[in-house]
Amino acid sequence: MNIAILSRGPYLYSTQSLLRAGAERGHHIQVIDHLQCSLLVDRDFPAVFHNGLNLSYVDAIIPRIGASVTYAGAAVIGQFEAMSVFTTTRSEVLLQARDKLRSLQRLTGFGVPVPRTVFAGEGQELSSLVEQVGGFPVVIKMLESTHGVGVLLAHDMLQATSIVEAFQKMNQRVVVQEFIAEARGADVRVLVVNGEVIAAMKRQAKEGEFRSNLHRGASAMPALLSPEEEALAVRVADVLGLDVTGIDLLRSHRGPLVMEVNASPGLEGIETTTGKDVAGSIICLVESRVESLRLQRV
Q1: Residue 212 and residue 273: Cα distance in Å, rounded?
Q2: Is the pLDDT of residue 230 over 70?
C-alpha cells in the first residue's frame, strides 16, 4: 500500500513513528510537505502534484497539519478526497476541530459536557461574561491556540480586560471559559483511533502553572480511565467525525468535562508515557479502511 504522511516536519517524533509503523507492516510510506503541493481542480481528473510529481498512486494519507497552515492543509486533504483517497482526517472535520468555539458548540448540541464557555465579541460587557461562567478566576483563550499558547488565566477584571483587549487588537477571536479549580492543574489526554481508546495519560502542570501541556514542562503518567471517561472520549470522536483524535478531559466535581479536542495529536508524549503503539493503531486503521473501500469498488 502507498501511504503519504502530510507533514512539514519529516524528523518530528510523530512523523518518524508513523514512518516506522508503516514500514514494519510492509507499506511504501513517505512524507509529503503539503505546502509544496499544487492542486489540479478538474471534474474528470483531479490531481495533487508534489514538486511536479503526480501523486495519483497514493492509496491513503495521514494528515499531520500544523495549526498555522490549517487552511492550506485542508485544501490538500480535500483534493485527495476528490480523488477518492482515504484520509485519517477529513478536510471539513479538521477545519471544525481547529475552531474551539465550533467544536464546543457541536459537542454541547449532542449533550457532551464541557466547561462553561462564552464567546467574547467586540463591545461586550466583560463583567457579564465572567459572571456567566461562574466568576474569577477565568481562562481566556484564543480560538485557534495550540500547545497552551494564547491560553491565559485571569484573576480579576483588570487582568481579564487587558488580555481580551490585547487579543482583539491582534484580530484574534477569544472565549472566556470556566476555570475548573478542582482539577488542580491536571488533565487527561485520551487517544482515540477508529472509535477505540488506544492510550491515556494524566498530565500535571508544573508548580505555578495551570496549563498542563507537556511543551510547558508538565509531567505525565499513564492514566486509568473510568467507564464514564472512556465512553465520553469515544462519543466525542464520533460526534466530531474524527477517526484519529486526542481528547483532553478535566476531572471536575460534576464529572469529566471535555476541555479540548485535537485533530492532529502529537504521539511522542503519549507513546513514551504509556508504551502504547499509537502509530501502529493508526496504520491498522488505514489498512482496514482502504481494504473496505477496495471491496466496495469491486
Answers
A1: 15
A2: yes
